[in-house]
Amino acid sequence: DAGITQSPRHKVTETGTPVTLRCHQTENHRYMYWYRQDPGHGLRLIHYSYGVKDTDKGEVSDGYSVSRSKTEDFLLTLESATSSQTSVYFCAIRDRKSYEQYFGPGTRLTVT
Amino acid sequence: SQQGEEDPQALSIQEGENATMNCSYKTSINNLQWYRQNSGRGLVHLILIRSNEREKHSGRLRVTLDTSKKSSSLLITASRAADTASYFCATDASYSGAGSYQLTFGKGTKLSVIP
């Protein structure tokens, strides 16, 4: 599992509330990613990070922000959750030697 | 935008048979990766094939890559009921020293292996 954990694993929240999802890795990987998975869409990139304080947008970044103050933690924030952000969120890292990307267990978020 | 497109969308076979899934993509790539996802679970990395490779094996898995046709295939031999899952291809179009190395996923092939 490449030492990736995500928290929380499940969350139900109300429309308009802020939500922060955490991704934690223990193997000092430089690149980290946040994806969302929705039926009929596969996985889509939200944001990624290429180092501490270095982040950039992905395909579906509207409504999301990220922060990376430490190598091991990559946070995804929904400033004001909407029902369209109900999804399963996956964090991933890129192995610097093999180029393989490994995924965390996912967070199932429901916005009511 | 979807880079990889898997075909078929769904596949049902008997245990012991071989399963072949195909992936087509649109742009030049650095590498292509295959993943398995059991229902309601996370993604398990299966195999990575680089753009300069044509074939790769891992256990019962065989992956081929044809860059001239922009396509890849995943073959699972002697399938088992435990192989029942969705399979995704993902392309990395970045090049060393540049880009995000992000993966662009297809929508997956849902494989059912009947005991």
Instruction: Report on the biggest sheet of chain A.
Output: 7 strands, mixed
Structural class of chain A: mainly beta
Q: Into which percent range does the helicity of residues of chain B fall?
A: under 10%
- On the 0 to 100 scale, the average pLDDT of chain B is 92
Computed over alpha carbons, the radius of gyration of chain A is 13 Å
Structure overview:
The complex is a heterodimer of chains A (112) and B (115). Chain A is mainly beta. Chain A is 0% helix and 58% strand. Chain A has no helices and eleven strands. Chain A has strands spanning 4-7, 10-13, 19-25, 32-38, 42-51, 54-57, 64-70, 73-78, 87-94, 101-103, 107-111. In chain A, the strands form two sheets. In chain A, strands 2, 4, 5, 6, 9, 10 and 11 form a seven-stranded mixed β-sheet that branches. The N and C termini of chain A lie far apart (31 Å). The model of chain A has no long low-confidence stretch (mean pLDDT 95). By secondary structure, chain B is an all-beta fold. Chain B contains no helices and eleven strands. Chain B has strands spanning 5-7, 10-14, 19-24, 31-37, 43-50, 55-58, 61-66, 71-76, 85-92, 103-105, 109-114. In chain B, strands 2, 4, 5, 9, 10 and 11 form a six-stranded mixed β-sheet that branches. The model of chain B has no long low-confidence stretch (mean pLDDT 92).
